[in-house]
Amino acid sequence: MDLEGMKATASARSNIAIIKYWGMRDYSLGLPSNSSISFTMDDTLSTTTTVEFSRKCPRDSLSIDGRPAEPNETARASQFLNIVRKMAGVRMRAKIASRNTFPRSAGMASSASAFAALACAATNACGIKLGGKELSQLAMLGSGSASRSVFGGCVEWRAGAKAGGSDCYARQISKKEDWAHLRNAIAIVDSGKKAIGSREGMEITARTSELFAARLKTIGKRIAEMKGAVARRDFQKMAPLIMRESANMHATMLDSWPPIIYLKEPSFAIMRKIHELNSAHGKYVAAYTFDAGPNAHVYTTKRHENDVIAALRGVGGVKRVLSCGIGDGTKISENHLF
Ligand code: PMV
Predict the structure, then answer these.
(1) Residue among 198, 205, 219 to mutate when testing ligand 1 (max atoms within 8 A of CB)
(2) Which residue is closest in CA terms to ligand 1's atom 4?
(3) How far apart are CA 258 and CA 37, in angstroms?
(4) For residue 49, what is the DSSP state?
(5) Exposure b/e, 314-333, CB count within 10 A at least 16 = b
(6) CA–CA distances in Å: residue 105 to residues 60, 146, 193, 228, 269
(7) Which tens digits make up the pLDDT trace of 40-50?
(8) How sure is the predictor about 241, in pLDDT bands with cuts at 50, 70 and 90?
(9) Is the model's pTM score more than 0.90?
């Protein structure tokens, strides 16, 4: 094996779902209960990762933003590399370095961009060339939402129905260029680590929430409506769907036992503020969505971006507001981090 050829670097960007993934139909294979839809963010929320497999590495090592990663983070990356090593017939350990453009202290440490970049860099370092579909199927084994960061623009991660998951993969449904006017204003409410990880949280919800079954019954209709609105680039149709979908997922979390509460008081204040703003305009100018945490992601258009940012800054408890546009999928880079 050519040692010089065992290094590669890739970048990936975070994505923010407008139809959320919460719950799995198969926990061992990581197959989701429902399809989900997201927009991939631009370089404001990006991760670049270099992977080098080498005989000189006694064990896998991971540094994030110039500092050694926590043991559990290294273990998760190492487990993921085991899958890639098996695919490639490689036994060497690896050095991994990762850099984020967004501050870690912003509480936005994104497993989506991290595992999409790692999947792309690690396979390329091993000389495996995967198509987008296969790369999304690999990335989802690191983190479900990472499957969507393989593509840019608007992306659907199809849950599929087959037992082995061969029909479960992500694909682009609308290209980045169609969304040059779309912005995402992010209101940071809490930069701390979440109390309960998404995998554990969704498992508790699926097991204990009665509303969860109702969610799965109605989500197909919401997905069809959202895809129609995305195809027409109809923000007036998308906005209420985005907000109600976020509320629907958080309702199942609250209905879980013990309840899972990610939203905090400023998150609710943001919801009220956005409804006020929309009412004042007599149309939808902004739509909030919340992942497994209290920070708000507010989709809006370039025209109303400054108004939305000012409104978010005026909400008590909001620590800072970032803003980004829609970006690309995974990319290979020659700018290695070491
Ligand atoms: O990517 P994961 O496995 O950590 O799960 C992400 C779950 C949500 O962010 C809450 C929803 C989503 O679809 O991104």
Answers:
(1) 198
(2) 198
(3) 28
(4) E
(5) ebebbeebbbbbbbbbbbeb
(6) 25, 21, 10, 37, 22
(7) 999 999 999 99
(8) very high
(9) yes
